[in-house]
Fold Facilitated trehalose transporter Tret1.
Amino acid sequence: MAKNTINSTSILTNRFRHQVLATLTVCILTFSHGIGLGWLSPTLSKLQSDTSPLEFPVTVEDASWIGSLLGLGSVCGNLAIGFLQNIIGRKACIYILAPPHICLWILIYFARNVEFLMIGRFLGGFAGGGCYVVFPLFISEIADTNIRGTLATMLMLSVNTGILIGFIVSTHVAYHIIPFCIVTLPMVYLILAFVLPETPQHLLRRKKYAEAEKSFNFYQMCNSENKQNISNPAFDQLKSIIENRSDSGSVTYKDFLTKDALQCFATAAVLLFVNQFSGIFAFVNYMSDIFSNSGSSMDPNTCTIIMGVVQIAGTYAATLLVDIFGRKILMLWSTGGMAVGLAAFGVFTFYAQTMDLSQYSFVPLLLMSFVSFVGNMGLIALTFVVLVEIFPAKIRPICASASMAILSLLVFAMLKIFPLYMDSFGISTTMWSCALVCAVSYLYMLVFLKETKGKSMDSD
């Protein structure tokens, strides 16, 4: 009996094969997006040096805009894809995200002035912002409840893997070779995404019943080992749920004012705030500066690459554990662990300013590795999963899109504020502030965060 239970929930089970393949397909674009994120930090150093591979100078002001325009592009991607996903469908939105990402690498390759890089980063942000809106929703609709968390966390695993690859290749590979090679990834993605069916939920809302059943059978493998050619009770149940929801009328402002919806908004606000102001994403962009100011004598670039490996380990741990322990326990472990790790990091850097702690140079790397691991295990890997799952089904697409747009604005704000805050108040106060955000969020989640493991995505 135990063996059968394990097999029934493993993503390697043949019944889930098409769900896994569909997830791996969309992960090609998130992987390429991650490379774009990791590519920036080492490349900016090259572009601002005397040995720049480009023929035009890149000032500090230019570099700040190249970095932060990602956030503005992400906002536009959030809003545009959020608006379109219920009109043209999930598949069409998934498909149209590739061209702007292709343009990013083309503009990087043919850059003749700094505006090429700025526009490219904006388009890369647009594609990434769209990914964070439609991919979690797409996966939540095609995935079985037993493996939905695992498949959804694979998105951030692919992003973090891409970030590590971006760190490495931009450090050791010539500037023009990188975009020439990486541009092939979104092209492959275009080909593979073309064969993916639309989600059955969207087709049912459009009253395309034959196509919806065909899509349902594809993702649930009902036409192979689970043949149900005459009657499919699971599909009939899904159809009934979608039709009942359609009969209840279109979305109105009253749907956003229910007690359940308001509680979800409060939880979403806390998730969005701690996701950015915990500093976990800013650390990726300013990791070298953090280690340079930490009192450690270790090479900052080496520490940064190690952080990339730790990020992947944390996200991979989430994929293994999310459908075993659930979302809430991992989020609590993440915020609580970060609060402790960041507070300890602040203490070390505080005493490093007045005491000789050179014999403990490994401590900043150890503490930041712990912070990065637990942060990616919860806040990074699961924020998008929880944001999609907590909202009532009727308003989920709108709320998920709005949440991603707000998150993108917070990304832009945090990337601008973080270096200024660290310069004005010092690294210790910065880390203690981030620790305080994590501690308060931990208390909120402990009381109010609802577990969504096993929750149906088709009914509330």
